[in-house]
Design goal:
The protein is mainly alpha-helical. The chain has helices at about 40-65, 75-80, 80-115, 120-125, 135-145, 150-160, 175-200, 205-210, 215-225, 230-245, 250-255, 260-270, 270-295, 315-355, 360-365, 365-400, 405-415, 420-450, 460-485, 490-495, 500-510, 515-530, 535-540, 545-555, 560-585, and strands at about 10-15, 15-20, 30-35, 115, 315. β1 and β2 form a beta hairpin.
């Protein structure tokens, strides 16, 4: 009888435990025995579906109005302005998408792959435009470039021009001007995600490309950009949805888009059915864009199993100057110049006010009032950001752990809220919440024998709920882009060692997703700080934010005084932006110097 020798100790290989018998049969290959791990697929499924339904319920309350008869505004818009709304929206999306992708990807590539004087400072300062609301930027550039502004005044004095007919000067209040403002304000979305993707890509891909004879530019377009595509596309998707939902910039510039059409139909013409039909068209447009993007990369895998980042190339001479200028220009246009213009307007208001400062000015600079405004804005933003990051992480992991068509549709449906104007979301939330609130009040009043009033309406929970509908897509897109860079074999290897889903997330994913989670929290925080329509409609009684104060002053054409409140928004939002951006760009052991 032939006996088998003892089996050698096992070793872990990827997602399996490989057992190699010694001299059992010289021709027998190693056998891979998969070790099943416990799963909770039904829990993941119902969590994603329940959350999607909860977040889409307010939108459904608006969209169901599509099947109702309107008051005539829809037929009027179809005959007059609908084509203009559609054309301007598509043109604006194209211009902002191309501009933000070019600036964000270009600056991310320069700061991640090259080194020059000033790079360490610029790589975190490039995030600062996130603290500057696009509508505030529109106010400042209009004041700078209008006929009575300093630029045209200097030109007339220099060249002796007396009237506007003596020279040509571009009009900032056009589709191109709105696209420029939105591009300068939104490119950090692409920059943050693309930079992380460029830093975390292994140098082995670059070495393989060099073996094929690729030069610097061929390597960029044929290796680097395709590998970073999930992160770049996620950033562009966020930019495009933010552009679709913008109201302040396009309305101030007089550009008719879907958003202004929804606001005009709902509030100016009083026809919420016509507004709901426009909102449904906007939702359908966003859904088509997201479906095409998801379908295009459904069979592509971008995970990198072994991360060995490439070293930065040192730039000298003209190349260093060009890189510095390329990264400085968007920072100057998107943050430094608008901030200086705001300071100029604020100083001008102080000088003109003298000893006769008006009541709004005194109220704004009252220390207690200002501290309350800042605390209201900061607290509601940090609470929403924390919840959004947790929910985004859970949704992205649920889809990764138990992928299915229903899960994918649920995740995509959650992201649709980002393209809906804040006021539409606010009204959509108020419809079901108010109905539920009345039923609760009646039930509790019957039980206690007295009127307890409305419990949910006008509270912080409802406001945070509206914010999550609006901004959860930011966290979800960022977490999905982060998960795309983690090879699934890491999950399988951890489970083969007996790790549960919770341990896999805590011990494997969380350290690898640190940068992505900080990025998601940063972007949600800043967007909530700048959010105006939902806050204006749904804020609790006696609860004002810096954005509401800015809107109140700007609505009254008190631009100089509005600049003071706008500066406060920038200053309050600047602290977490700087801290988080420094944390994101801080060199680690795996990052090239």
């Amino acid at each position: 009888m032939r006996f088998c020798p003892p089996i050698a100790p096992h070793r872990i290989t990827g997602a399996f435990i490989t057992i190699r018998p010694q001299q059992l049969n010289s021709t027998t290959p190693s056998q891979a025995i998969p070790i099943p791990a416990p799963t909770n697929r039904r829990g993941n499924f119902w969590f994603a579906v329940t959350l999607a339904v909860a977040l889409l319920l307010p939108l459904a309350s608006v969209l169901t109005s599509v099947f109702q008869a309107d008051q005539g505004a829809w037929q009027h818009m179809r005959a007059t302005t609908l084509a203009d709304l559609l054309g301007n929206s598509i043109l604006l999306l194209s211009l902002v998408g191309i501009g933000a992708a070019s600036i964000g990807t270009g600056t991310a590539w320069l700061t991640a792959r090259y080194n020059w004087w000033g790079r360490r400072t610029l790589e975190w300062m490039l995030v600062l435009p996130l603290a500057m609301p696009a509508y505030v930027m529109a106010y400042t550039y209009t004041d700078l470039l209008q006929y009575a502004g300093p630029v045209q005044s200097v030109l007339r004095e220099t060249f002796g021009w007396t009237t506007k007919s003596d020279y040509w000067f571009f009009d900032i209040r056009t589709v191109g001007g709105a696209a420029t403002m939105l591009t300068c304000a939104l490119y950090p979305y692409v920059y943050l995600l693309a930079r992380v993707a460029f830093l975390e890509r292994s140098t082995s891909f670059i070495e393989v490309g060099r073996t094929f004879g690729y030069g610097r530019w061929s390597m960029l377009f044929r290796v680097t950009l395709p590998l970073a595509r999930p992160a770049i596309v996620a950033g562009i998707a966020l930019v495009m949805m933010e552009t679709l939902a913008d109201y302040g910039t396009v309305s101030y510039f007089g550009v008719n888009t879907f958003t202004t059409g929804i606001f005009n139909a709902w509030f100016a013409q009083g026809d919420r059915i016509a507004a709901a039909k426009l909102a449904s068209m906007l939702l359908g447009f966003v859904a088509i864009v997201l479906f095409i993007e998801s379908h295009a990369r459904r069979r592509v895998r971008f995970a990198d199993a072994f991360s060995r980042p490439a070293q930065r190339t040192q730039l000298q001479g003209h190349a260093a100057v060009a890189a510095f200028a390329a990264c400085s220009l968007p920072l100057f246009a998107g943050f430094l110049l608008p901030a200086m213009l705001l300071v100029r307007l604020a100083v001008g208001e102080l000088t003109s006010a003298g000893g006769n400062t008006n009541d709004a000015f005194v109220t704004l600079f009252n220390p207690g009032d200002f501290a309350q405004l800042a605390w209201n804005s900061f607290s509601i933003a940090i609470l929403t950001a924390a919840i959004a990051v947790v929910l985004g992480l859970l949704l992205a992991y649920a889809n990764r752990r138990s992928p299915s068509m229903v899960m994918a549709v649920a995740n995509r449906a959650v992201g649709l809220g980002y393209a809906i104007p804040g006021t539409v979301i606010a009204v959509g939330v108020l419809i079901p919440v108010t109905a539920l609130d009345h039923r609760l009040a009646d039930a509790i009043g019957t039980l206690l024998g007295r009127d307890v009033g409305l419990i949910l309406t006008g509270g912080f929970a409802v406001l945070v709920y509206a914010y999550l509908i609006r901004f959860l897509a930011i966290s979800l897109q960022t977490c999905e882009a982060g998960f795309a860079k983690i090879t699934p074999s890491m999950d399988a290897a951890a489970r083969s060692l007996g790790a549960s889903d919770r341990e896999v997330v805590r011990r494997v994913h969380m350290p690898l997703l640190r940068t992505s989670l900080i990025t998601a929290g940063l972007m949600v925080f800043v967007d909530v700080m700048k959010e105006l329509p939902a806050t204006l409609v749904m804020r609790p009684f006696n609860f004002d934010t810096l954005a509401v104060r800015t809107y109140t002053l700007a609505k009254d054409e008190r631009l100089a005084e509005a600049s003071i409140a706008a500066l406060a928004i920038v200053l309050v939002g600047l602290i977490p932006v700087v801290v988080a951006s420094r944390a994101i760009t801080r060199p680690t052991g795996n990052e090239p110097r």
